[in-house]
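New to this. Please check this record:
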Amino acid sequence: MDINKYQLETRKTNIMGNNLDYFMVALGGETGELLNHYKKIMRGDKDLTLSEIVKLRQELGGIAWYWARVLDTLGCEASECLQENLGILEDRIKRNVVKGDGNDR
């Protein structure tokens, strides 16, 4: 699926307008749900079965939805964000600074 098409199509389910605060907090909440689910796999409560992978994918879908809303609120297209990030990563490879701390390596 085209990432910009996803961003456009999922706008239909946005009932919160351009509420950046809400979308940022919800993005963190969805990320927490993903990590909490995976934590249970790490400690041995669950195995990483196909069923659990589906659940993790569903949480990742929620993260994608809120990420798209944050981008909408900021007036950005998803593909532009990803292309910019790819450029940053390629630059880090060229400068041999993939490892390290912070965004400004």
